[in-house]
Specification:
Two copies of one chain form a homodimer.
Chain A (H helix, E strand, L loop, with lengths): L9 E5 H14 L15 H9 L4 E4 L2 H9 L5 E4 L6 H10 L5 E5 L2 H10 L3 E5 L14 H10 L3 E7 L11 H19 L3 E4 L13 E2 L22 E11 L4 E4 L18 E6 L4 E5 L11 E4 L4 H5 L4 E6 L2 E7 L11
Parallel strand pairs in A: 1-14, 2-3, 3-4, 4-5, 5-6, 6-7, 7-8
Antiparallel strand pairs in A: 1-9, 9-10, 9-13, 10-12, 11-12, 14-15
Helix pairs in contact in A: 3-4, 4-5, 6-7
Chain lengths: 340, 340
């Protein structure tokens, strides 16, 4: 199949860029030194590519992701790196990972109780390291670990996500070090083998974790690519020009807010200025000196934020030049665990 | 079922607010004076409620919406109010509406050619009325109508969407009148019975169209609600508090960018300040004097923009007080027409 045969809007993954991103990270963080985060791509087919590159332990953000990964045999070591108190869904993750390994993040008595109630066996203590989100205070981690162990849970260690530093450019190494100091202090109190954290934006600066929780590096946010980074954007939204206003100098593509996430800013189009996105459309004009496209022309848009963009689609089309070389279902979307 | 039994994140529709919105619009724009836009809610079950209120002609933004509406018997008079040059998908709309009535928007020789090629019989000439998006120049509408008729198409009239004026508050009536002057001039050249246009934001000021293309009024954007309008927000995102930081004074709910659209700004939470949304979470703090919630508490978030929020979910849960009184599948999502 040719790229031009695909109906639009559709997601395109540049095969060679993706492969380079995966290889670059595998060289820097081989095997279990990386715990790829499937929330970024929500596809077991893409996860298989990472397993082939040597990474067989994964992060998940939802019970649906855990169940989906385990159901296709990618459950060697799954971390639900998120707080979940929905016992029905949490129980589904336990059921799906029988014979595999499941670890769940906990940061409160309530999340410990939920884990115990549904038969989770292993946990990490989630520690807040500067991002205002989940995670206990570093000083509380030891007591939570004691509470978890008293309840019969195995505590494998700690995790902490310095998400507030991903896009930092000034003094990044020092800030990451300061953030991780809190995690290491918590680890000293908690014990265990695992110090999990970090992400694509701190892939080289966070040298304190035993495993890096990066996922976006595979497809790479347009926004992240502003950083000095070896990872290059591999995800495009394919679209068709459906209207052209030659009098006023704009064109309209059939991919809008329902096809790409704009929370990190509007998408970009090579050789063009994006005016705005609406529900089904993006209006743009060519850069100086370039001609307007014609109705029916294919164009590509580069989304600023990969994770929520992928979550809008059913399929990733892997492309090389004009050929579609593979199709990866986005099979980990939504929140209902699908038990096969 | 009780609201508290629903897993989160989930969409909630306040039954009484929805009913009031529908009744208010039906009184102002009865029957075919309203052509509800299904892109706003993507649910044939919700569309049936509007049909019960007297509106049996609908707008669609995608071939998938047309096919879905026709397949459940809601195809009495469907307008594909969008430019489509994908002949495979456009052909699916024709096949699905045999025995029903289908009209397609065209604004260029290419869209006319696509309509002719797949056997579309009726069209509207889409006219640009100030929003930089689809639609021909008003002065070109007559010639396009002639071209369409020469190609064997029935031209029912014109459409034009003054989307740039939806949120206008100053001098709105005059601006809408000026915008519609272009559409009426085009209509004089084109002929036909239909002048279609407008939306929720101009429901009372656009007195020139023969049919109003409003959809958001049913669930009502949090953002639209800033206007002086009788329509009230009826859509909420149900979420669970999964983490609370009592030292630093914030809480975290399990609904983020993958569960609600933020292109019209972040969601709001009654009695709280929203800090930010990330992929799976929203961080917030209580308003002055209010207590932090507990882990496990249910909260609701009001999204700024209904249309792309609904498109993220599989179901709308219709609620009255604490009871789930109905469930409406969001069955018109995605872009692949599903022929039953």
């Amino acid at each position: 199949m040719r790229v031009g045969d695909l109906s639009t809007p559709c997601l395109l993954v540049e095969a060679d860029t993706f492969a380079t991103n995966v290889a670059t990270m595998a060289a820097a963080r081989p095997g279990r030194a990386l715990r790829p985060h499937v929330k970024a791509f929500k596809s077991t087919a893409l996860a298989r590519e990472l397993a082939a590159a040597g990474h067989d332990a994964f992060c998940c953000a939802t019970p649906a992701e855990v169940v989906g990964m385990a159901s296709v045999g990618l459950g060697a070591d799954l971390l639900l790196a998120n707080e979940v108190v929905d016992r029905r869904r949490l129980a589904a993750t336990v059921d799906s990972t029988l014979g595999s390994r499941l670890t769940v993040a906990v940061d409160s008595p309530e999340t410990i109780a939920a884990a115990v109630a549904v038969g989770v066996r292993e946990v990490l203590i989630d520690v807040e390291v500067g991002l205002p989100r989940c995670g206990c205070d570093p000083s509380a981690a030891g007591a939570l670990a004691t509470e978890a162990r008293a309840a019969g849970l195995e505590v494998r260690g700690v995790m902490g996500y310095e998400g507030h530093l991903m896009m930092e450019t000034d003094d990044k190494a020092a800030q990451v070090e300061a953030s991780m100091a809190g995690l290491l202090a918590a680890h000293a109190d908690v014990g265990g083998d695992v110090v999990s954290g970090g992400g694509t934006g701190t892939w080289d600066t966070n040298t304190w974790v035993t495993e890096l929780q990066a996922g976006s590096y595979t497809l790479m946010d347009g926004d992240y690519a502003r950083l000095h980074s070896p990872f290059r954007p591999a995800l495009l939204v394919g679209a068709t020009v459906v209207a052209v206003n030659r009098t006023k100098g704009w064109a309209v593509a059939d991919a809008g807010l329902k096809a790409l996430a704009t929370d990190h800013g509007p998408p970009t189009i090579d050789g063009a200025t994006v005016w705005f996105c609406s529900d089904e459309h993006t209006t743009f004009s060519p850069a100086d000196g370039l001609a307007l496209p014609a109705v029916g022309d294919r164009i590509t848009l580069r989304p600023g934020h990969v994770d929520p963009t992928v979550a809008l689609h059913d399929r990733l089309h892997v492309v090389r030049d004009d050929d579609v070389v593979d199709i990866w279902p986005v099979d980990l979307r939504g929140w209902d665990p699908v038990v096969p």
